[in-house]
Amino acid sequence: MNCLTCRVEGGSGSAPFLLSRFTRSTLHPVFTLLVFLLSFTVVNNAFSDEPDRVAPTRVAWQMDDSYQGPHQDTFQKLKWDVPILMRQTMINVAVKLGMHFEEGWQYPLIIDFVDLTPPGMENALAYVQLGTGKDGIAQHLSINISAYDRDPFNFEKVFAHELVHAMINDAVGAEAAIRLPVWLHEGLAVFGADQGEQMAKSYVYQTSGWSEQKLLLGLENHRGGISYAEDYWAIKYINEKHGSNSLHNFVREIISRKGDIPGALDYTCSETWDSFQKHAREFSKEEIKKIGPAKWGQGEKPY
After folding, report:
1. Distance CA 153, CA 186 (A)
2. Distance between alpha carbon 23 and the CA centroid of its chain, in Å?
3. How far is CA 172 from CA 25, 247, 255, 264, 265, in A?
4. Pairing of strands 126-133, 136-144
5. 254 with 264: CB under 8 angstroms?
6. Residue 264: is it exposed, middle or buried by C-beta count within 10 angstroms (0-12/13-18/19+)?
7. Which pLDDT score, from 0 to 100, does residue 14 have?
8. Domain locations in the chain as residue ranges
9. Alpha carbon distances (Å) from 173 to 34, 74, 94, 220
10. Contact between residue 132 and residue 101 where contact means Cβ atoms under 8 Å apart
11. Model-level pTM?
C-alpha cells in the first residue's frame, strides 16, 4: 500500500370530487390538512434545485487475523476484544467530538496485528496508515502486539485513539486528511480517547521544573509523543473556554471545510489562528501549574 499519511400522486378524478363536495360548506379539517401538506410538498419540491441523491456506499471494517508471530496468547485476546469494542468506541468518540456517527466506512478499514513497526515509529503501540493499493484508498489500523507484551497498556484507550485518527481521515477525505497538521490529529485523538489527563500529568512529572520549556514547543513544532500534552491542551482550551458546543462545531467545520483550521476557528470561536495559539499556550501554562511538581516516587505511565 502506498501511504498518503463513509410524491404523493393522485388521479384526476378524486380531487375535483372532493372539492365540489365541500364547496358550499366549511372544509373538513382532515381534508384541509391533507391539502396543506400536499401543497407544501409541491412548493418545497418546486423550489429545490438539488437532484435526488444516492447515499454513497459505505463498507464494513475487516480484520486481518493472519498473524503468525510469537505472541499468540496476546493475539487471541486482542482479536476477540476488537469486535466488542469497535462500534461502541466509534459512538463514544463521535459523541465526545461532535462527529456524525455513521455505520461503515467511506474507505475500507483493515485491523491487523504486527510485531514490527515502520521506520520512525519504533515505539508505536498502534498506528493508522492511510494509503492507496490495487483496490483504491484504504486505511490500516495496526496493533503492535510485541509492545503490548513488553509493557501492557490500556488497550481500550489506545484503540480509541487510533480510531479517532481513522474516523477523522474517513470524514474529511483522503486528500484533506494528509494535509491536517499533526497537532490537530493528535490533540483530537488524545481528547477523544480520554487519555489527556493521565498523559499530561505523566509528561509534566517527567519534565518537572522544566515543563514549560520542554512541553510547550508550539503547535507547529511537533516533537513526537511528548508534544501530545500541548496538542491535548489546545483542544481542551476550546472545550473549556469556548464550550463543548464550540468544540463540536469546530470539528464539524474542520470536516466540512476540508481542514481549513483558521476558517473553522474564526467561525466557531471568533479567534484568529494567532490569537488561538497565544491563548492555548497561556491555558497550557495554567494546566502545568495545576498539576504541579512531582513528589518523590510519584509518577505514572502516559498510556
Report:
1. 18
2. 59
3. 58, 16, 5, 13, 16
4. antiparallel
5. yes
6. buried
7. 34
8. 1-6+55-178, 180-303
9. 43, 33, 17, 22
10. no
11. 0.81
Judge contact between 74 and 149, C-beta under 8 A.
Answer: yes
Q: How far apart are CA 51 and CA 48, in angstroms?
A: 8
**How far, in Å, CA of 106 to CA of 167, rounded?**
10
- What pLDDT is stored for residue 152 in this prediction? 85
Contacts for 165 with CB less than 8 Å, ≥ 6 apart? 128, 185, 189
| pLDDT value of residue 110 | 97
Grid coordinates given for 299: 509518577
* Locus of grid cell 515543563: 211
What are the 10-residue block averages of pLDDT along the chain, 303 residues in total? 48 33 39 42 44 73 96 95 97 97 95 90 88 91 93 92 98 96 97 96 92 96 92 98 98 98 98 98 97 72 81
Residue keyed to cell 490500516: 140
Q: Tell me the sheet residues that pair with 144.
A: 114
**Rounded Cα gap, residues 244 and 241, in angstroms:** 9
Nearest CA to 238 out of 215, 203, 268 is that of: 268
User: All 3 cell numbers of residue 169?
Assistant: 481521515
- The grid coordinates listed for 198 are 493521565
Grid coordinates representing 290? Answer: 495545576
Start-to-end C-alpha separation, the chain: 29
Q: What angle do CA 194, 118, 123 make, to 5 degrees?
A: 45
C-alpha cell, 280:
492555548
Residue 235 identity (one-letter amino acid): I
How crowded is residue 49: how many other Cβ atoms within 10 Å of its Cβ? 5
Length of the chain: 303
